[in-house]
Amino acid sequence: MDFISEIGFDAPKGKSREMQEWLRANEPKLRAEAPKGWEYIGTYAAVISTQREAGEFRQLWRHTSYADMDTWAATMREPTAFGQLFDEFSTKFIDDAREARWSQTIMKAVTDASIWGES
Prior knowledge:
- The protein contains three helices and four strands.
- It is of the alpha+beta class.
- The protein has one domain: Alpha-Beta Plaits (2-Layer Sandwich).
- A four-stranded antiparallel β-sheet has the order 2-3-1-4.
């Protein structure tokens, strides 16, 4: 199977350039330390979007099964290099204020998706 998980978020005010520099320095580590079954695709600025509340940035991850979500969660509970990196990123650069925009989407490849209700 093939999934893309998208995390949409706003950075705290005044932190976008710092986030950009952090990502330049740490994206190779995020890729190398990603949990088993996960691939870091990248973090993107949404330059054009019709989604008004999804956040100005999107982080994309590829994974291959629903079980990979459990692997991610387990990795975050342990003192792993990835857990520390992701915790640092999310603590510094994902605005968790109640009014901040955010979104989460999990997409499954159409070729793997179950399609029903069509005769």
